[in-house]
Design goal:
With about 160 residues, the chain is an alpha+beta fold. It has one domain: SH3 type barrels. About 25% of the residues lie in helices and about 25% in strands. The protein has 5 helices and 8 strands; from the N terminus they run H-E-E-H-H-E-E-E-E-E-E-H-H. The strands form 2 sheets. It has a 6-stranded mixed β-sheet with strand order 6-5-4-3-8-7. A hairpin with a 5-residue loop joins strand 4 and strand 5. The N and C termini lie far apart (about 40 Å).
Length: about 160
C-alpha cells in the first residue's frame, strides 16, 4: 500500500469517526475480572488513541481475559468511508506465518485508558476464524464473503470464549 493510499484511508477513517466522537457509547471489560464498564464520551487523553487511524493501526487486540490475541495491521473502509473491518494479524513470528483476519469493526470494543482493543473471543476460536494470507486478500466488498465472515464473528463473539 502506498503512502498516499494510507493517508487517504487515514483521512477517511478520521472523518467517519469524527461525527460520532462524543456520541458513541463504548463498553469494555476492565480486565480485572469485574463487570464491564460503560462510557459515553472519550476523555481528552483517549480520543486520539481511540479515533485516529494512525493510532489504531498497530494496536494490540486482547480477549476479555486480557490475553494478547493479535494486533491491528490495517483498516478497511466501506463505500461511505466508515470502518468495516480491522485487519488483525495473529500467529507468525516477525511477519512469517501471519494469518490475517478481517474482524468486523463493530465487534471490537474500545478499552478507554488502555492501549488495546478487545475481541470477546479466545485464542482457540480465533484460530478457526476465516483468515487470509497477507499477499492474497479476499474481495472484502463481495456480499457473500462479507456475510459469511460477519456470521462467524457474530456467532463466536460472546459465550464462546471458555468462560
Amino acid at each position: 500500500m502506498t503512502s498516499t493510499s494510507r493517508q487517504l484511508i487515514t483521512a477517511l477513517a478520521l472523518s467517519a469517526a469524527a461525527g460520532s466522537l462524543f456520541a458513541q457509547t463504548s463498553t469494555s471489560p476492565d480486565m480485572g475480572g469485574s463487570a464491564a464498564t460503560s462510557r459515553t464520551t472519550a476523555s481528552s487523553e483517549d480520543w486520539q488513541r481511540i479515533y485516529r487511524a494512525s493510532k489504531i493501526i498497530g494496536t494490540d487486540v486482547r480477549n476479555t481475559r486480557g490475553e494478547k490475541i493479535g494486533d491491528i495491521k490495517d483498516l478497511v473502509l466501506d463505500k461511505h468511508g466508515a470502518i468495516s473491518y480491522a485487519v488483525v494479524s495473529t500467529g507468525g513470528f516477525l511477519g512469517i506465518g501471519d494469518r490475517l483476519h478481517a474482524v468486523p469493526w463493530n465487534v471490537l470494543q474500545t478499552a478507554p485508558g488502555r492501549d488495546f482493543r478487545v475481541l470477546d473471543m479466545d485464542k482457540t476460536r480465533l484460530k478457526s476464524a476465516p483468515n487470509f494470507d497477507p499477499k492474497s486478500w479476499p474481495n472484502v466488498i463481495d456480499e457473500k464473503w462479507g456475510e459469511d465472515n460477519r456470521r462467524f464473528y457474530q456467532s463466536g463473539a460472546s459465550g464462546s470464549n471458555g468462560r
